[in-house]
Write a structure and sequence with these properties.
753 residues; alpha+beta; Alpha-Beta Plaits; 28 helices; 26 strands; rod-shaped; binds ligand C2E; binds magnesium ion
Length: 753
């Protein structure tokens, strides 16, 4: 029979063999009750387990005079028994008992372990079960020894409780009861102590853990938290008890995140990951969290344990390292590594959205001089200041990096035209060249900029960088303090356009505009009936600039509005002056741009021009192109109706090149058609052009509109025009556009003829 089977057998026996209270006398019952009460009191007062057991031994000794009580515990590893408590046995006895190996001759206690059952020996001097330790019995005068197993809760024998007598005797029922009760109490006290020890240990681990620990019940209400939790979250244990851990959440995660977490926890019993929570003071911080679901004996979740640590420092360190790897320490700008990534994604998005982007290489001119003359410290200050200046000029979508040395690179996204980039480059150059205060020194530098455009100058980051660099080199070679496109033709056209645009801004205040006037001749009478005002620009550098070169630029930049206002004022003033000087009945034709209709307040401008000049509105003729009349018709119609109400005349310029729709001629109450030069020029040689001119005149006549032929250069054109009853003509054959004083002389001479 092995030990376990025996233990089982024994446990059943002990149950059966247990001494019944009924067989005890009243006195014995009372004595046992008193013993139990005394022990209970000690337990209740929280006495140490050893102290309680010692007391128990003494109390039992009192109830069995002439005896000593002893408790031996089994050392399972060493397979021996050691004395745990024997308050009345002298030290020497204890020493000799210690290390007792269980066996058939190892005394009462050794036999208890060996046979897994109570052993009652009434004569230790003759009983075979004492054969191995008989000298001990002799030495200490132990004549009888009754020993009882001590069980754990799971009925495992862990030791023995013995009463040894200095006389030969067999146990009565009362004695057996004493032994049973003693062993049972000792078992409970030892077990309790083990649990308490375990709990003390757990509590120690819980409290001293460097990690935050939260324990909740099955419904996720917080039961307890440790002190680290309070330290990290700011919440005391009382504040969180009974609350849901959700109170710690930040709003950084969406509900889906928590759903996944909860799902994994239910499925696997475990979840771990990074999460952002909020401290009591509102700070949001990252933590590494492990959640475990604890199940009870019925496999139902009874608790959750959350263990987490604050990882904000680690995160910050990581972020700092990432930052350092991607930024230039001096200026704080992204470095080349990060920039290349930006550029690659900028190209990808430009490709997808079919947009353009520009890469600008910016290099300070003669930066080395600053370093050499003022020292590197000032060089650094200048670079920092330059970075700030560049940053302040950027849109949110633009990126900038310091490429090293005094070189910076910009990515401009979502640009529309090269002009736009040129404007930005020009502004950057002007910002960078304003004097800058570096401590006590005022320093002036300039910069050269090279521009490469996507997709024109390359469709990948390597080519774009290379070409922007090449363009920058070009800018340096061309004398620095300027920008250069990678493609040369762009440089020229953009340059001219920008020079014109910049010049236009100053032209009005510098009085560089002049109106020329070209006579309009009545084909029947041969008299001059009117003039067309044509603007001229005396450019300080380029000389006379024709309108075809600057009107489109003025339209794009919006400058056409103030310029157009000036033309109207000047033309009306001149017409009024001529009327006073004898050129009565002269019509003044003025060209209007579509942009003036769209962006300006046409009615107000014209009213003002008429008002200040005193010109009779009937002598002002506005030349509109067909394109004006078909844009945003209702608005234009309203404007035109207001103008007509003022009494001014309306002519359609370059008629025949556009839409030539009859309906709008009627709707807009047009007065005159100006047949485009291209038809007039070819009329003599090309029958189809002649047919068009004929048709236009016929149509105009039927609508009661006047007609004028533009671009009449020689006499051969006159006969067919007269034949078809064209009313008027204008062109080099009669006169070129001329300044006002010349026109006065021309008119006087004509009248004189
Ligand atoms: P447009 O209104 O059709 O003006 C007639 C153009 O033809 C003028 O050119 C005039 O000089 C030119 N021309 C006149 N007779 C002849 C000829 O016999 N042969 C040839 N080859 N050309 C002739 P210009 O002055 O260079 O003006 C060009 C255009 O610029 C004008 O065309 C008009 O659209 C615009 N423009 C001129 N002045 C103004 C202005 O004050 N405001 C606006 N918005 N546009 C203007
Ligand atoms: Mg015109
Ligand atoms: Mg024209």
């Amino acid at each position: 029979m092995n030990h376990n089977a025996k233990a089982h057998h024994q446990s059943c026996n002990t149950q059966v063999d247990t001494v019944q209270y009924s067989v005890l006398s009243e006195t014995e019952k009372e004595q046992i009750l008193t013993l139990q009460q005394a022990i209970l009191e000690l337990v209740a007062h929280g006495h140490d387990h050893k102290e309680i057991i010692d007391n128990l031994c003494r109390l039992e000794e009192q109830l069995l005079p002439n005896s000593v009580a002893s408790v031996m515990l089994l050392d399972e590893k060493q397979h021996c028994l050691n004395v745990f408590a024997a308050p009345s046995i002298p030290e020497e006895g204890v020493r000799q008992l210690n290390g007792l190996r269980p066996g058939p001759g190892a005394g009462s206690c050794g036999n208890v372990i060996y046979h897994q059952e109570p052993v009652f020996v009434s004569d230790t001097l003759t009983d075979a079960r004492w054969v191995d330790i008989r000298p001990l019995a002799v030495h200490f005068g132990l004549m009888a020894c009754w020993s009882m197993p001590i069980y754990t809760e799971g009925r495992k024998i862990i030791g023995t409780f013995a009463l040894s007598s200095f006389e030969h005797r067999a146990p009565s029922q009362f004695h057996r009861k004493l032994l049973e009760i003693g062993a049972s109490i000792i078992g409970i006290v030892l077990e309790r102590n083990k649990q308490a020890e375990y709990l003390r240990l757990s509590a120690k681990v819980f409290e001293s853990s460097g990690e935050c620990i939260v324990i909740t019940d099955a419904r996720q209400r917080i039961l307890s938290v440790n002190s680290t939790f309070t330290k990290i979250t700011g919440y005391s244990s009382e504040e969180v008890q009974g609350q849901q851990p959700g109170m710690l959440n930040s709003s950084l995660h969406d509900p889906e995140f928590f759903q996944n977490m909860s799902h994994t926890l239910q499925e696997n019993g475990y979840w771990q990951g990074e999460i952002w929570d909020q401290r009591k003071n509102g700070n949001i911080y990252p933590l590494w969290l492990g959640l475990t679901a604890i199940k009870d004996n019925n496999n139902q979740i009874s608790n959750y344990i959350g263990i987490f640590s604050d990882i904000s420092e680690r995160k910050e360190a990581e972020a700092r390292i990432r930052y350092l790897a991607q930024h230039d320490v001096l200026t704080g700008l992204p470095n080349r590594t990060m920039f290349t990534g930006d550029l690659v994604s900028a190209i990808a998005s430009a490709k997808k959205l079919q947009q353009h982007l520009a890469l600008l290489f910016i290099d300070l001119d003669h930066f080395k001089n600053i370093n050499d003359s003022l020292g590197h410290h000032y060089g650094d200050l200048l670079l920092k200041a330059t970075a700030e200046r560049l940053k302040s000029r950027l849109k949110a979508s633009d990126s900038i990096c310091r490429q090293g040395g005094d070189e910076f690179i910009l990515i401009l996204q979502d640009i529309i035209t090269p002009d736009e980039v040129a404007h930005i480059a020009e502004r950057l150059i002007s910002v960078l060249s304003t004097p800058i205060q570096l401590n006590e020194h005022e320093v002036t530098v300039s910069a050269s900029i090279g521009i490469a455009l996507y997709p024109e100058d390359g469709d990948n980051e390597e080519t774009l960088v290379k070409n922007a660099d090449a363009a920058m080199y070009h800018a340096k070679q061309s004398g620095r303090d300027q920008y250069r496109f990678f493609v040369k033709s762009l440089n020229d056209s953009v340059h001219e356009r920008l020079t014109i645009e910049n010049g236009l801004r100053k032209a009005l205040e510098r009085n560089e505009f002049e109106l020329y006037y070209q006579p309009q001749i009545n084909l029947v009478s041969g008299k001059m009936t009117g003039v067309e005002a044509l603007i001229r620009w005396h450019h300080p550098e380029f000389g006379m600039v024709p309108p075809s070169r600057f009107i489109p630029v003025a339209e794009d930049s919006g400058m056409i509005i103030p310029i157009g206002d000036w033309v109207l004022k000047e033309a009306c003033r001149q017409a009024a002056a001529w009327h006073q000087n004898g050129l009565e009945e002269i019509m003044m034709a003025v060209n209007l741009s579509a942009v003036q209709f769209r962006r300006g307040d046409m009615v107000k401008s014209i009213y003002a021009a008429l008002e200040t000049s005193g010109l009779d509105p009937a002598y002002l003729e506005l030349e509109l192109t067909e394109s004006i009349l078909i844009q945003d018709t209702e608005k234009v119609l309203a404007t035109v109706q207001q103008l007509k109400a003022l009494g001014v005349k309306l002519a359609i310029d370059d008629f025949g090149t556009g839409y030539s729709s009859l309906s709008y001629l009627k709707r807009f109450n047009v007065d005159k058609l100006k047949i485009d030069q291209s038809f007039i020029r070819n009329m003599v040689n090309d029958p189809s052009d002649a047919a068009i001119v004929h048709a236009i005149i016929q149509m105009a006549n039927s609508l009661k509109l006047k007609t004028i032929a533009e671009g009449v250069e020689d006499q051969s054109m006159l006969a067919p025009l007269r034949l078809h009853h064209c009313d008027e003509a204008q062109g080099y054959y009669f006169a070129r556009p001329m300044p006002a004083d010349e026109l006065m002389r021309y008119a006087t001479a004509k009248i004189g003829k």
